[in-house]
Amino acid sequence: MRAFAFITFSVLCACASRAQTIQGVPIPEERGFKGVIGDTDKESKPDYPKPVAAPPGSPNVVYIVLDDVGFADLGVYGSEIHTPNIDRLAHEGLLYTNFHTRAICSPTRAALLTGRNSHAVGLRTVANSLNGFPNGRGRITHAAATLAEMLQSNGYDTFAVGKWHLVPGPDAGPAGPVDQWPVQRGFDRFYGFLDALTDQYHPELVRDNTEIDPPSTPGYHLSVDLVDQSIRYLRNQNVQAADKPFFLYLAFGAAHAPHQAPASYIDKYIPVFEKGWDQTRDDRLSRQKELGIAPRDTELTPRNPGIKAWDSLSADEKRLFVRYQAAFAGFLEHTDEQVGRLIGYLGDSGKLDNTVLVLISDNGANPEGGFEGTTNALSAYMNAPTTLEHDLSEIDRIGTERSWSNYPRGWAMAGNTPFRLYKEYVDAGGVNDPLIIHWPKGIHSHGQVRRQFVDVVDITPTILSAVGLQAPTVYRGVPQLPLHGASVRASFDDPDAANARHTQYFELHGHRAIWHDGWRAVALHEPGNDFKDDPWRLYHTAEDFAENNDLAKSDPERLRQLEDLWWAQAREYGVLPLDGRSPLDSIRTGLPRQILSKPLKYTYYPGIQHVPHEASPMLSICGYTITAQVDRTDTRAEGVLFAYGGGAGGVVLYIRDNKLAVEHNTFGTHNALVSPAELPSGPAVVRYEFTPTGKTSGSGALFLDDRQIAAANYTMPSTLFYAWEGIDIGRDGLSHVSEAYADKGDFAFPEGAIRKVELEIKVPNGAFSGGASGTR
Fold this sequence. Notes:
Strand order of the largest sheet: 7-6-5-4-8-1-9-10-2-11
Strand content: 15-25%
CATH superfamily of the largest domain: Alkaline Phosphatase, subunit A
Low-confidence stretches: 1-23, 766-776
Largest sheet: 10 strands, mixed
CATH topology of the largest domain: Alkaline Phosphatase, subunit A
Mean pLDDT: 92
Shape: globular
Helix content: 10-25%
């Protein structure tokens, strides 16, 4: 019976298979098969699927995104900074003076890539800051396909290079999830970094879906590397698909802090900026008027609150502050040189003529260096500012691989000439930013200024218009949000073209604004205040370019209408609930949730990839224990056991000269503890325990096989610190936490001598409970 049953089952399966083959093919993607399938090839007729192809003559598309570059920072917008290659794009294309962003990086990028308002797709602020509501998920909803997804599905090759910052921090590690990484959001290839910023000399890099070490090229700089990779992708694409259009999304880390560039680019700007920020503002506005960027009757807005007159500064302050600005300017010129290399390749390869190249800055100039600037931008983020004396002692390091500087707000104010305020604010200094569009084949009005209102959500609809495509209503089975922007292609050859849209709202960290038909209302939110108490200002931007004249009292009815319109837009596009916290405040107030949402104990094995800082445990507020199991066959075996962070801040446990050592680097303040006695060879368990004892103090102890061998009390700028680099096991792979082994490269521990390293987070005073263990 069993044999009969088996034979019967086999025959039935064969018949079912034959019936299925006769009807067609079982592969779902082949249901449109138009050939004939018989028993043999002689009785069958093949049907070769045609590859998806872009519309004939489709242009290539290049987005170049600069970071924290103000309205007046580029040469063609009135700056002293030498940017001839970017200027060339404007001289051969169009320069827009009324272009608006979201005032901070992640929301601008989300709106740029999707053509939808950032709140509606899940990015109310930076991707690192989650608020538990649909507008603050830190990722782009799949209901909003990116331009890369739209173009890729219509026959384009797609490449993303540089900064991403559209994935929640915990998802940026080697274990993912990777569903929001560039390759999963429509890009064939990715080379760059996932977070907000990175060290330009020692970046945390990802290739496609894999963390990698930066190249060990002498004189390495990330901006050069990004353009090298861009050109490499385009050259390789040209080998097999020369007639296939491409989309390149090139997002530089420049000119976000840290400001880092070769010394020759920095030194040339010291005499240029000795005139100070007040004269720089005057000079830039004068040039803007000559260039037609600003109307002739434009007046500078008053100095931003807290900014001192340049002439009131001491000689030491002026010397230091000039060096900070020179580092920024050199960084920007160095970036412009890389843009020139990309333009050169496009020209030499015959691609430039039919490439729509869009260059923007993601927001206004950056105020995060504080009023005094800093040689260590991490300290400014953590409200542990450095002193003038300290920064003067490091003045020659500024811009190098051992400095992580950010300039004073006075220079950011000059960068946003003639507007008020900066990045993170919805005043014009935060949202009115550079836009240049270059397309020789499609734009015939070269070198002209355009004054139409353009928002970042309008760029992708403009590209779709140029390509001849419609945004999908369903993408990969997911119904799609409609585009919120509109094409501004009519402005390409018509300087008097009407604005493509009538209204655009703005919101960031509780600051609100709305533009409607040449009028703009703005409300600045003070943390802790009730939103209803925030005063609104009113500007007629069609006549008041710099937003100098507040008409709120003289035209209260118009202001009331604009306020009502803002609330209507807020409800329509998912802006609510309002949240007035800054990203850093959100992180601080959310520390208990962040701590408990991650494991409290981690096990790391040698050979793992670098764990980026956003995916690493937070070694602050709580204490922690680092335990390493080692087996040294020789007492000369030495190296790093565990490293978290880098030269700007972190902690490292290592063995050198046969002694166990730990070092805290808190924004450049170093506290080291070294065992007085040498270590034995053979198997051993070494441990370091750190306990914070106050906001600026802590205690630490080293152990060998559960026996305490050294202890110390520390005074440090802060026990709350944040690192730009994550965790390495068995080496210090990027910039070094400690200079004690600067002569040792990565100071790699001998292979096979580490068995594992455990990190345990100690919850303070039993205030929180929970968590789980994890292995990496």
